[in-house]
Design goal:
33% helix; seven-stranded mixed beta sheet; Rossmann fold
Protein backbone atom coordinates (compact mmCIF):
# COMPACT_ATOMS: atom_id res chain seq x y z
CA UNK A 1 0.00 0.00 0.00
CA UNK A 2 1.08 3.58 -0.61
CA UNK A 3 2.45 5.96 1.99
CA UNK A 4 0.70 9.30 1.77
CA UNK A 5 1.41 11.79 4.52
CA UNK A 6 0.38 15.11 2.99
CA UNK A 7 -2.99 16.66 2.28
CA UNK A 8 -4.28 17.02 -1.23
CA UNK A 9 -3.32 19.89 -3.49
CA UNK A 10 -4.13 20.41 -7.12
CA UNK A 11 -6.72 19.17 -9.53
CA UNK A 12 -6.93 18.28 -13.18
CA UNK A 13 -9.29 17.56 -16.03
CA UNK A 14 -10.45 14.00 -16.53
CA UNK A 15 -8.55 12.04 -19.12
CA UNK A 16 -9.09 8.50 -20.35
CA UNK A 17 -12.10 6.30 -20.85
CA UNK A 18 -14.56 8.07 -18.55
CA UNK A 19 -14.48 5.29 -15.96
CA UNK A 20 -12.20 7.34 -13.72
CA UNK A 21 -13.82 9.92 -11.49
CA UNK A 22 -12.02 13.28 -11.65
CA UNK A 23 -11.14 14.99 -8.41
CA UNK A 24 -12.43 18.51 -8.17
CA UNK A 25 -12.74 21.39 -5.73
CA UNK A 26 -9.33 20.75 -4.20
CA UNK A 27 -7.50 23.87 -5.31
CA UNK A 28 -7.18 26.25 -8.19
CA UNK A 29 -6.63 24.57 -11.53
CA UNK A 30 -2.96 24.09 -12.39
CA UNK A 31 -1.22 25.37 -15.46
CA UNK A 32 -2.45 23.59 -18.55
CA UNK A 33 -0.42 20.54 -19.47
CA UNK A 34 2.25 21.04 -22.08
CA UNK A 35 1.55 19.51 -25.44
CA UNK A 36 3.03 16.03 -25.49
CA UNK A 37 3.09 14.93 -29.13
CA UNK A 38 1.89 11.52 -30.34
CA UNK A 39 4.30 8.60 -30.27
CA UNK A 40 4.64 5.49 -32.33
CA UNK A 41 4.17 2.45 -30.14
CA UNK A 42 7.54 1.01 -31.13
CA UNK A 43 9.28 4.28 -30.17
CA UNK A 44 7.71 4.62 -26.73
CA UNK A 45 9.17 3.67 -23.36
CA UNK A 46 7.00 3.50 -20.22
CA UNK A 47 8.65 3.12 -16.80
CA UNK A 48 7.21 1.91 -13.50
CA UNK A 49 8.62 2.46 -10.02
CA UNK A 50 7.15 -0.02 -7.51
CA UNK A 51 7.10 0.49 -3.77
CA UNK A 52 7.76 -3.19 -3.07
CA UNK A 53 8.72 -6.41 -4.81
CA UNK A 54 6.34 -7.45 -7.56
CA UNK A 55 6.20 -10.87 -5.89
CA UNK A 56 4.80 -9.50 -2.62
CA UNK A 57 1.41 -11.03 -3.43
CA UNK A 58 -0.27 -7.73 -2.60
CA UNK A 59 0.03 -4.08 -3.62
CA UNK A 60 3.01 -4.31 -5.97
CA UNK A 61 1.77 -7.58 -7.45
CA UNK A 62 -1.54 -5.87 -8.26
CA UNK A 63 0.28 -3.06 -10.05
CA UNK A 64 2.49 -5.53 -11.90
CA UNK A 65 -0.62 -7.23 -13.24
CA UNK A 66 -1.53 -3.83 -14.69
CA UNK A 67 1.91 -3.57 -16.27
CA UNK A 68 1.48 -7.00 -17.83
CA UNK A 69 -1.86 -5.84 -19.27
CA UNK A 70 -0.11 -2.84 -20.83
CA UNK A 71 2.46 -5.11 -22.45
CA UNK A 72 -0.29 -7.29 -23.88
CA UNK A 73 -2.26 -4.31 -25.19
CA UNK A 74 0.80 -2.67 -26.73
CA UNK A 75 3.17 -5.47 -27.75
CA UNK A 76 5.60 -3.11 -29.50
CA UNK A 77 5.89 -0.86 -26.47
CA UNK A 78 8.98 -1.05 -24.29
CA UNK A 79 8.55 -1.11 -20.50
CA UNK A 80 11.02 -1.01 -17.63
CA UNK A 81 10.48 -1.19 -13.90
CA UNK A 82 12.32 -0.94 -10.61
CA UNK A 83 11.12 -2.76 -7.49
CA UNK A 84 11.26 -1.56 -3.88
CA UNK A 85 11.94 2.08 -4.68
CA UNK A 86 13.04 3.62 -1.36
CA UNK A 87 11.46 6.68 0.22
CA UNK A 88 14.65 8.70 0.06
CA UNK A 89 16.82 10.66 -2.34
CA UNK A 90 17.47 7.32 -4.06
CA UNK A 91 13.92 7.55 -5.42
CA UNK A 92 14.83 10.80 -7.16
CA UNK A 93 17.82 9.14 -8.75
CA UNK A 94 15.68 6.23 -9.98
CA UNK A 95 13.09 8.53 -11.55
CA UNK A 96 15.86 10.60 -13.13
CA UNK A 97 17.35 7.43 -14.56
CA UNK A 98 14.01 6.58 -16.15
CA UNK A 99 14.08 9.97 -17.90
CA UNK A 100 17.72 9.52 -18.89
CA UNK A 101 16.86 6.18 -20.48
CA UNK A 102 14.27 7.91 -22.65
CA UNK A 103 11.03 7.17 -20.80
CA UNK A 104 8.05 8.98 -22.30
CA UNK A 105 5.80 8.11 -19.37
CA UNK A 106 6.61 7.30 -15.74
CA UNK A 107 4.31 5.69 -13.18
CA UNK A 108 5.13 5.54 -9.49
CA UNK A 109 2.91 2.98 -7.82
CA UNK A 110 3.02 4.77 -4.49
CA UNK A 111 3.35 8.33 -3.24
CA UNK A 112 6.84 9.78 -3.57
CA UNK A 113 6.01 13.43 -3.04
CA UNK A 114 8.83 15.81 -3.88
CA UNK A 115 11.06 12.95 -4.95
CA UNK A 116 8.97 12.52 -8.11
CA UNK A 117 7.71 16.09 -8.42
CA UNK A 118 11.23 17.51 -8.63
CA UNK A 119 12.02 15.12 -11.48
CA UNK A 120 8.75 15.88 -13.26
CA UNK A 121 9.39 19.63 -13.01
CA UNK A 122 12.70 19.16 -14.79
CA UNK A 123 11.33 16.85 -17.51
CA UNK A 124 8.25 18.60 -18.98
CA UNK A 125 8.40 16.36 -22.05
CA UNK A 126 7.61 13.29 -19.91
CA UNK A 127 4.18 12.34 -18.50
CA UNK A 128 4.22 11.33 -14.83
CA UNK A 129 1.52 9.60 -12.78
CA UNK A 130 1.78 9.02 -9.05
CA UNK A 131 -0.44 6.57 -7.20
CA UNK A 132 -1.89 8.03 -3.99
CA UNK A 133 -0.39 11.37 -4.92
CA UNK A 134 -1.37 14.85 -3.86
CA UNK A 135 -0.24 17.18 -6.60
CA UNK A 136 -1.19 17.92 -10.19
CA UNK A 137 1.13 20.02 -12.31
CA UNK A 138 1.48 20.43 -16.05
CA UNK A 139 2.92 16.93 -16.53
CA UNK A 140 2.31 15.21 -13.19
CA UNK A 141 -1.01 13.63 -12.25
CA UNK A 142 -2.16 11.20 -9.61
CA UNK A 143 -4.62 8.35 -9.18
CA UNK A 144 -6.01 6.28 -6.34
CA UNK A 145 -8.67 3.67 -5.62
CA UNK A 146 -11.87 4.44 -3.69
CA UNK A 147 -11.26 1.40 -1.50
CA UNK A 148 -13.57 2.74 1.21
CA UNK A 149 -16.65 1.51 -0.68
CA UNK A 150 -15.75 -2.20 -0.86
CA UNK A 151 -14.43 -1.88 2.70
CA UNK A 152 -17.87 -0.67 3.81
CA UNK A 153 -19.53 -3.55 1.96
CA UNK A 154 -17.22 -6.09 3.57
CA UNK A 155 -17.84 -4.39 6.91
CA UNK A 156 -21.52 -5.26 6.61
CA UNK A 157 -20.56 -8.92 6.34
CA UNK A 158 -18.25 -8.51 9.32
CA UNK A 159 -21.02 -6.98 11.42
CA UNK A 160 -23.33 -9.87 10.59
CA UNK A 161 -20.74 -12.61 11.12
CA UNK A 162 -19.01 -11.51 14.32
CA UNK A 163 -20.07 -13.25 17.51
CA UNK A 164 -18.12 -11.07 19.95
CA UNK A 165 -18.83 -7.71 18.25
CA UNK A 166 -15.07 -7.10 18.35
CA UNK A 167 -13.30 -6.57 15.05
CA UNK A 168 -9.52 -6.54 14.84
CA UNK A 169 -7.56 -4.44 12.37
CA UNK A 170 -3.95 -5.06 11.41
CA UNK A 171 -2.81 -1.59 10.40
CA UNK A 172 0.45 -0.18 9.17
CA UNK A 173 0.78 3.56 9.76
CA UNK A 174 -1.71 6.17 11.05
CA UNK A 175 -2.21 7.79 7.63
CA UNK A 176 -5.35 8.63 5.63
CA UNK A 177 -5.45 5.45 3.54
CA UNK A 178 -5.39 3.36 6.73
CA UNK A 179 -7.97 5.51 8.53
CA UNK A 180 -10.27 5.33 5.50
CA UNK A 181 -9.93 1.54 5.31
CA UNK A 182 -10.49 0.86 9.01
CA UNK A 183 -13.21 3.47 9.48
CA UNK A 184 -15.16 2.31 6.44
CA UNK A 185 -15.07 -1.32 7.57
CA UNK A 186 -16.24 -0.41 11.07
CA UNK A 187 -19.00 1.91 9.84
CA UNK A 188 -20.25 -0.83 7.54
CA UNK A 189 -20.32 -3.25 10.45
CA UNK A 190 -22.09 -0.75 12.71
CA UNK A 191 -24.74 -0.09 10.05
CA UNK A 192 -26.10 -3.60 10.69
CA UNK A 193 -24.74 -4.21 14.19
CA UNK A 194 -24.40 -0.97 16.18
CA UNK A 195 -22.57 -2.76 19.01
CA UNK A 196 -19.47 -3.45 16.88
CA UNK A 197 -16.14 -2.02 17.92
CA UNK A 198 -12.72 -2.28 16.31
CA UNK A 199 -9.25 -2.44 17.80
CA UNK A 200 -6.36 -1.61 15.51
CA UNK A 201 -2.71 -2.52 15.90
CA UNK A 202 -0.10 -0.67 13.84
CA UNK A 203 2.88 -2.69 12.60
CA UNK A 204 4.73 0.28 11.06
CA UNK A 205 5.32 -1.73 7.91
CA UNK A 206 3.43 -2.65 4.76
CA UNK A 207 5.19 -5.98 4.46
CA UNK A 208 6.28 -7.64 7.70
CA UNK A 209 4.70 -11.09 8.10
CA UNK A 210 6.19 -11.60 11.54
CA UNK A 211 4.84 -8.32 12.90
CA UNK A 212 1.44 -8.93 11.27
CA UNK A 213 1.28 -12.41 12.79
CA UNK A 214 2.06 -11.02 16.24
CA UNK A 215 -0.55 -8.28 15.84
CA UNK A 216 -3.21 -10.72 14.66
CA UNK A 217 -2.45 -13.12 17.51
CA UNK A 218 -2.78 -10.31 20.05
CA UNK A 219 -6.09 -9.24 18.52
CA UNK A 220 -7.41 -12.79 18.59
CA UNK A 221 -6.30 -13.19 22.21
CA UNK A 222 -8.22 -10.02 23.11
CA UNK A 223 -11.49 -11.46 21.79
CA UNK A 224 -11.56 -10.16 18.23
CA UNK A 225 -13.20 -12.81 16.05
CA UNK A 226 -13.09 -10.97 12.72
CA UNK A 227 -9.72 -9.75 11.47
CA UNK A 228 -9.12 -7.27 8.68
CA UNK A 229 -6.33 -4.95 7.69
CA UNK A 230 -4.33 -3.30 4.94
CA UNK A 231 -1.08 -5.25 4.77
CA UNK A 232 0.51 -6.59 1.60
CA UNK A 233 0.67 -10.24 2.69
CA UNK A 234 -1.69 -12.85 4.20
CA UNK A 235 -0.18 -13.33 7.67
CA UNK A 236 -3.29 -12.39 9.62
CA UNK A 237 -5.45 -14.60 7.39
CA UNK A 238 -3.26 -17.54 8.39
CA UNK A 239 -3.80 -16.64 12.04
CA UNK A 240 -7.55 -16.43 11.52
CA UNK A 241 -7.59 -19.82 9.83
CA UNK A 242 -5.64 -21.44 12.65
CA UNK A 243 -7.84 -19.86 15.34
CA UNK A 244 -11.22 -20.52 13.74
CA UNK A 245 -11.88 -16.81 13.08
CA UNK A 246 -12.98 -14.88 10.01
CA UNK A 247 -10.88 -12.43 8.01
CA UNK A 248 -11.07 -9.96 5.14
CA UNK A 249 -8.00 -9.10 3.11
CA UNK A 250 -6.59 -6.43 0.80
CA UNK A 251 -5.10 -6.12 -2.71
CA UNK A 252 -5.82 -9.54 -4.25
CA UNK A 253 -7.64 -12.83 -3.72
CA UNK A 254 -5.76 -14.58 -0.89
CA UNK A 255 -8.26 -17.28 0.06
CA UNK A 256 -5.78 -20.08 -0.58
CA UNK A 257 -3.99 -19.07 2.63
CA UNK A 258 -7.11 -19.58 4.73
CA UNK A 259 -10.15 -20.84 2.85
CA UNK A 260 -12.35 -21.33 5.91
CA UNK A 261 -11.48 -17.95 7.40
CA UNK A 262 -11.64 -15.99 4.15
CA UNK A 263 -14.68 -13.72 3.83
CA UNK A 264 -13.61 -11.42 0.99
CA UNK A 265 -10.99 -8.81 0.10
CA UNK A 266 -10.65 -5.33 -1.28
CA UNK A 267 -9.28 -6.25 -4.70
CA UNK A 268 -7.47 -3.93 -7.07
CA UNK A 269 -7.30 -3.92 -10.86
CA UNK A 270 -5.18 -1.22 -12.50
CA UNK A 271 -5.16 -2.78 -15.97
CA UNK A 272 -7.81 -0.67 -17.69
CA UNK A 273 -6.58 2.56 -16.16
CA UNK A 274 -2.99 1.90 -17.16
CA UNK A 275 -3.98 0.92 -20.68
CA UNK A 276 -6.11 4.05 -21.08
CA UNK A 277 -3.35 6.33 -19.80
CA UNK A 278 -0.71 4.78 -22.04
CA UNK A 279 -3.04 4.94 -25.04
CA UNK A 280 -3.70 8.62 -24.37
CA UNK A 281 0.03 9.29 -24.18
CA UNK A 282 0.64 7.48 -27.47
CA UNK A 283 -2.21 9.41 -29.12
CA UNK A 284 -0.93 12.74 -27.86
CA UNK A 285 -4.12 13.38 -25.87
CA UNK A 286 -2.81 12.73 -22.35
CA UNK A 287 -3.33 15.42 -19.73
CA UNK A 288 -2.21 15.49 -16.12
CA UNK A 289 -5.19 14.86 -13.85
CA UNK A 290 -6.25 13.64 -10.43
CA UNK A 291 -8.37 10.49 -10.77
CA UNK A 292 -10.23 8.15 -8.46
CA UNK A 293 -10.66 4.58 -9.71
CA UNK A 294 -14.21 3.77 -8.67
CA UNK A 295 -16.17 0.76 -7.44
CA UNK A 296 -16.27 -1.90 -10.17
CA UNK A 297 -13.78 0.14 -12.22
CA UNK A 298 -10.44 -0.51 -10.54
CA UNK A 299 -11.50 -1.59 -7.07
CA UNK A 300 -14.18 -3.94 -5.73
CA UNK A 301 -14.88 -6.66 -3.23
CA UNK A 302 -13.59 -10.09 -4.08
CA UNK A 303 -15.90 -13.07 -4.57
CA UNK A 304 -17.29 -14.15 -1.21
CA UNK A 305 -15.56 -16.90 0.72
CA UNK A 306 -17.01 -20.39 0.89
CA UNK A 307 -18.23 -20.03 4.50
CA UNK A 308 -20.14 -16.76 4.01
CA UNK A 309 -23.89 -17.51 4.25
CA UNK A 310 -26.00 -16.60 1.24
CA UNK A 311 -28.23 -14.26 3.24
CA UNK A 312 -25.19 -12.26 4.38
CA UNK A 313 -23.84 -12.08 0.85
CA UNK A 314 -27.14 -10.72 -0.38
CA UNK A 315 -27.45 -8.14 2.38
CA UNK A 316 -23.93 -6.83 1.81
CA UNK A 317 -24.34 -6.82 -1.96
CA UNK A 318 -27.56 -4.86 -1.68
CA UNK A 319 -25.38 -2.01 -0.42
CA UNK A 320 -22.95 -2.57 -3.28
CA UNK A 321 -25.84 -2.16 -5.70
CA UNK A 322 -26.91 1.05 -3.96
CA UNK A 323 -23.39 2.49 -4.15
CA UNK A 324 -23.14 1.60 -7.83
CA UNK A 325 -26.43 3.47 -8.23
CA UNK A 326 -24.93 6.62 -6.74
CA UNK A 327 -25.58 6.23 -3.01
CA UNK A 328 -22.85 7.34 -0.58
CA UNK A 329 -23.06 5.60 2.83
CA UNK A 330 -20.64 7.99 4.54
CA UNK A 331 -23.22 10.37 5.89
CA UNK A 332 -23.65 12.09 9.21
CA UNK A 333 -23.89 12.03 12.01
CA UNK A 334 -20.45 10.42 12.32
CA UNK A 335 -18.63 10.76 15.64
CA UNK A 336 -14.96 10.33 16.30
CA UNK A 337 -13.65 7.96 18.94
CA UNK A 338 -13.93 10.64 21.61
CA UNK A 339 -17.65 11.02 20.90
CA UNK A 340 -17.39 14.38 19.12
CA UNK A 341 -19.58 14.81 16.05
CA UNK A 342 -17.22 15.32 13.11
CA UNK A 343 -19.73 14.86 10.30
CA UNK A 344 -23.09 16.40 11.24
CA UNK A 345 -26.45 15.02 10.24
CA UNK A 346 -27.34 15.92 6.69
CA UNK A 347 -23.69 16.02 5.57
CA UNK A 348 -22.13 13.42 3.28
CA UNK A 349 -18.39 12.78 3.13
CA UNK A 350 -17.31 12.90 -0.49
CA UNK A 351 -14.27 11.08 -1.83
CA UNK A 352 -12.05 14.12 -1.34
CA UNK A 353 -12.85 14.21 2.38
CA UNK A 354 -12.45 10.46 2.80
CA UNK A 355 -9.12 10.63 0.97
CA UNK A 356 -7.90 12.95 3.74
CA UNK A 357 -9.40 11.07 6.70
CA UNK A 358 -7.13 11.41 9.72
CA UNK A 359 -9.28 10.42 12.71
CA UNK A 360 -10.89 7.25 14.00
CA UNK A 361 -14.67 6.88 14.20
CA UNK A 362 -16.58 6.05 17.36
CA UNK A 363 -15.83 2.51 18.49
CA UNK A 364 -12.29 2.58 17.11
CA UNK A 365 -9.29 2.17 19.35
CA UNK A 366 -5.62 1.93 18.47
CA UNK A 367 -5.60 4.47 15.61
CA UNK A 368 -6.02 7.62 17.65
Amino acid sequence: MPRRRRLLAGMGALAGSGLWRPVSALADAPTLAPHLPPLREEDALVAFGHTGPITDGGWSTAHDKGVQAVRKAFPKLRTVYVESVPYSADATRIFRQFVAEGANMVFSTSNYGDFIKDVADRAPEVAFLECDGVTVTGNLGWYYVTHWYPSYIIGIAAGLMTRTNRLGYVGTFPIPSVYASANATLLGAQSVNPGCTMHAVATNSWFDPQAATQAATALADSGCDFLCGITDEPAFLRVAESRGLKAAMWNLDMRRFGPKAYVSAVVLDFASFYIDQVRARLNGTWQAAANFLTLAHGVDRDAWGETVPQAIREQADAMRDRILGGYNPFRGPIRDNSGTVRIPAGTVMDDNAIYQWDWGVQGMTGLG
